[in-house]
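Weekly structure sync - notes
Attendees: PM, LS, DV (DV joined late)
Agenda: review two folding runs queued last week.

Item 1: First target. Sequence and structure tokens pasted below for the record.
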Amino acid sequence: MKEIDVEQIEKTIGYTFAKKELLHSALTHSSFTNEHIGYESYERLEYIGDSVISLIVANYLFNRFPYANQGFLSKIRSIIISEKCLSEVIEKLGLDKYLRISETLTSISPRLKGDIFESIAGAIFIDSNDINKAAEFILINLKNKLNAEYNVDNITDYKSALFEYAAKNGMKLSICTEKINDLPPKFKSTISLEGYNSSIGEGNSKKKAEQEAAKALIIRDNILN
């Protein structure tokens, strides 16, 4: 039977369990419990861990991208909490070697490794009764993905986002829009934000031209990331 080095695992994840049995359960697959009486699998902890991770990551992205819409935030969250990302963390931490599974299973799939991350997060939350403790484990181990550069092309109102950004940071912002063609109508907008080079946008309406100019500035200089 595979032994679980509780002290080493706690050192690796940065959390000491009051109820050591939770850590044991977090690393026990149902195939193992089917063959050994008296053990509990990680399924319940995985269930709660999945929800905790989703909430923590959603909150982090909500604050990191204050101008992004729901679609963008949901897409990035799905990337960060994907099976691939979570399994990579478990491999890096070397925790997959502690998973107790049936001897009939010859390998540990990425899905199972992802389950381990979720079950450990759930175990920390249940043991501590403190979501901040679970958040520490989650944010530290997902920091590279959480802080990676993502395209903010899903913002729907670039002009408002830019005005809010300028106001929040005490920066001067000016917009100059002119009609450059009558038929068909065409407008040209120039936006200047303190500390950045001006950007230009064109469109068949004043509103469209200003949105395009704001979008160009935001994306070119990666302003809202």
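Item 2: Second target, run right after the first with the same settings.
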Amino acid sequence: MIHLLTALILTASVPAAHAEGPAPAASAAPAAAPTVGEGSIVRPTFVVGDEKATAGTGFFARIGGATVLVTSHGLLGPNGGLPTLLKPAEVATVTQVVLTDAWTGRGTAKAGPGLVVADAATVVESPSRDLAVFRVNLSGFDTVATPTYTPPAPLALATLAPKVGDIVWLASPVKGSDQRVHAAKVGDVSAAALYVDFVEKIDLVGTSGAPFLNAKGEVVGMCVGGGLLEGVVIGAANPASSIASRTTQALGAR
């Protein structure tokens, strides 16, 4: 199942100036795109009791001195194949998240149980609240690559937000493309949300939970939805500052 916003929902949630007419997409992706190797971007399978749901994307990050899996809270419900959306406190009932590298399909470290992000919700409520975080406990063996196992390669969160007009890149497999990163122009940025116009008309199915990166390869936001608006593919993201603050709070609450 896929977490993909319709254009109607996006129009309602995009700031008015952006919704009235998105900036024209750039003519070509810049050459300074970041390199994304194996072990950073993953496909998650959430285990909740006897149920399993494989949906969306996630990424490893280092936050507050801990290695964590970061993904979209919206995947923990009907959009991800579960009967109902989990409440924030119920994320702890996700006992394990089985992970595979997003491009190779090789296994990597498991995550879980979930941390409680107190105000977690879906992007419809607020992009900055669409967040699910799972602790990743690594032993020495978890850092050794094998033919069937890829060690986690956590990403760093950017300390500075991108500016309007900057180019950022969505790091995720997309249908019909062999590229690992996909350029987008920042159309609006605030503490509550990051909105972008993609350079190319890409298919965002399955990209909820994938990171947006700057040219340094740092996470500036996490994709929480998107859609086609006036001929341009729009993306909505949870900003890195929100991910950092909410994850730090959740880690401290354990």
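Discussion on item 2: The chain has two domains: 7-36+156-240, 41-154+244-253.
Action: LS to circulate a short write-up before next sync.
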